[in-house]
Amino acid sequence: MNKKKYKISDFSKLTGMSLKTLKHYEKLKILIPEVDNDNNYRYYNYYHCGRMLRSKCFTNLGFTVKETSHLINDKGIDEIISDLEKQEADIGKEIELISLRQERIKEIKQRYELFRERPNTWLIGRRKACYLIRHVQDGAFVEDEKTWTRINDMINYQPHIIEIFYYPKNSVQDNFIAMGIDAKTAEKLDIDTSNPMIFMKEEKCFIYVYSSKTADCNLELINKILKIMENEGYKISGDIVVEGGLDQYPNGERIFQKLFWIPIE
Prior knowledge:
Structural class: alpha+beta
């Protein structure tokens, strides 16, 4: 059966592939047209459309054009299956990352809803287990190489990182600023949580929702909150975590917003 031939411009119109793409595919031997030696015209037929569809299948699965070229030109069935399995695993990781981002969006939205609906009030809730790493103490960065290597890694895990002010229960003056992350998220992201990371177990907490145009000192606020807790019959049972990084800027005016997580018995 004679195959109808199409000039490169006509094939481009029929398939929606640009001339630049067709020439690139020719270079990578994905689509090799027939060349008329007399006029140097390139001709395509329906067979090339089949090759194009096959290549599109792989590129739309996340393979690069170069990888696709090897898949449809060089590789046997075992190699193709192996490449597909690797791509399947990579896509699975991407889906998990998207799912984690979606969960984090919900968490951050819930935080802002608290500031909108319950500013400067308290409630009882559970703080999730988390890992944190100290990076500022006494107004200076912690200049430990191992710490900073881990901190640089942590920064790349936004939006999952939480800004934390940490106050030890028995020595609130010995406080520091830390980067924190939910323990389950850290495990899913395969983050190194060994020393100098600090683990904090899940705890029932007295939560104070602070929202103000003034940046009150955390230590003074903690003393006020402890008085409120005492009046309400609650007693502190663990280290205090203040969650920051949640300010808002309506009309350019800063409103300081923090969540004080104080473990209770």
